[in-house]
Fold this protein.
Amino acid sequence: MTRRLTLTRPDDWHLHLRDGSMLDAVTPDSAADFGRALIMPNLVPPVVTGAHAASYRERILAAVPAGADFTPLMTLYLTETTEAGDLVAAARDGIITAVKLYPAGATTNSASGVRDVSAVMPVLEAMADAGIPLCVHGEVTDPEIDIFDREAVFIEHVLDPLRKDLPELRVVMEHVTTADGIDYVRDGGANIAATLTTHHLFINRNHILAGGIRPHYYCLPVAKRESHRRALVAAATSGDPSFFLGTDSAPHLDAAKLSECGCAGIYTAPNTLPCLAQIFEEADALDRLDGFVARHGATFYGVAPNNGTVTLVREDAPQPVPQNRATEEGMLTVFDPMVPIHWRVA
Ligand code: DOR
Ligand code: ZN
């Protein structure tokens, strides 16, 4: 049995670091295990200009512990008033790596997002011309559509028509949660890829709702039924370069999670790598973990894999879930996969 596994230093292609004291609290966890991360722009107010992205990048770098090898790659938050010129210049100058499309109202701090994709078509055309990837939160927001169907309906009614109009646009379907999303990306050609989160490889909707409600498992897109979770694991462990890690590690204080109207988001940065090693081991695919965490995403984004490595060790005894984090403003609960994890980072 494999006891030690050395991987190329991984990338997290979808990460929420927030700002202020939360930024200070969570950045060390990602910087410990990852060489780079694509930083989501849904701050309050959102990161909507190249200048905002540049100053947010400086605040992140100030929160990276001395000696850590961690590079934040920035995104802009697409709004219906985004100026194509500013966005293209920010990409050309290396300030941003991608642009994030939140359908307005789809998730945390998405109120300034896009109501109607036709309103941003000129910006998307400029992005296609310049080769700037669009990261998509793929859920419709129509209250008539059942929350468990919102991803599949988005693919049919928004994403596929957009890609037919603009086939050159490079798209990452973020945090795919359904077999529909997996099939769409797998068969979608070279200009589409998908990120998969840690938590969606472990939990289905029963974990959230059966035998008591577990707010720490609530995230968006919400976890679907078990057959979908299995499709995600099959895709992650398949070796298909269209699929790569984007943790969507999304810290919220316990007080915000455990309230009348709890926030969506799961904090997986501290234990993502051990959790993934467990999933890949159980799928007899440990040899494909390096591709999933360190190569497929880099290839899609057109960057070289990181220098450096990270080593995982398998112990006979299950390893404890990392302790919950104390921030200046309260406690932050770390993802508990509720199954034995035998791996740890050396
Ligand atoms: O669960 C989620 N949390 N999904 C998102 O799309 C946003 C994220 C957050 O920012 O908290
Ligand atoms: Zn996210």
User: Anything to note?
Assistant: The longest strand covers residues 71-77. The chain has one domain: 11-270. DSSP finds eleven helices and 13 strands in the chain. The chain has a mean pLDDT of 97.
